[in-house]
């Protein structure tokens, strides 16, 4: 890196292997590496000479596709194969570079849309400004409504549920999805993400989307007050002492979770922050968090263990059932909004859970379903 007292000559900087499609958002990265439209070797740059018009990281002429769709953070280098993703995001040659100049805040396009009010379901803005937990009920819709926050949230939860179901056992149908908005938990999660970013660096600060399975009576309590982890009153493992540490467990495959939820048909889909992960090589019954790490993962990498309640944000309650034939869209009336909401104050339970013992809050079963995005790193 050039010394602070000297101006860096852009031609002396090494070229980032991702070129203009680089997914990183750290301003320092763009000061230390060139990002030409096509990653080139030093020989290529020499042959082009001083007349080369390759833009550097601070160039304001980066190319972006002229489209009404929000840009994918990976641009033309996007690794995804899901056609739905390409229908909802544009993939320009270069991701908008203005994000790289922001001062350390999270520059994820979706977060920007949420903060600006562009990506909120009807009523979510008021929910975020309040103190209560609000649930927005979402269902499958036949019509594609470009830019619909309701459809995007539903399809995200739906795709996460179906993605890792094995072909022979893929006989489930999603009835509905409840989108959970808890202002207090959201604020704590965002702060934890920023803290993790400062401590571990950006690459280890991305969240992971994960399903957690538990008894139905625990779901609303978790959504209202968050997860209980070691050190908090009422914490206990329902099935064992915690094979890979005493924390909250997640698993990659939905069938694994379903075996432990006692016939229930609801799963929680959460964002979790793995941070620096300790890879267990054997059973470590009830062990505390490994020093210098933020989470544990099982030997086969099918179970992720989170130890900090602020590193978990409940986002969706997925209601599913066994399939009984072809899928049929629910009947809707033109002009009637499908999204509904219900509000619960912190500490309130479902109407049918009034007699639950408070100690049951977050009986942590070793059952959850998790899918790791490439950009939500667990190393």
Automatic annotation (TrEMBL):
Residues 55-66 have a biased composition (Polar residues). Residues 122-336 form the PARP catalytic domain. Residues 348-364 have a biased composition (Acidic residues). GO terms for biological process: double-strand break repair. The keyword Transport does not apply. Residues 45-54 have a biased composition (Basic and acidic residues). Its EC number is 2.4.2.-. Keywords: Glycosyltransferase, NAD, Transferase. Coiled coil: none annotated. Residues 29-66, 339-364 are annotated as: Disordered. GO terms for molecular function: 3'-5' exonuclease activity; DNA-(apurinic or apyrimidinic site) endonuclease activity; NAD+ poly-ADP-ribosyltransferase activity. This is Poly [ADP-ribose] polymerase. It comes from Crassostrea virginica.
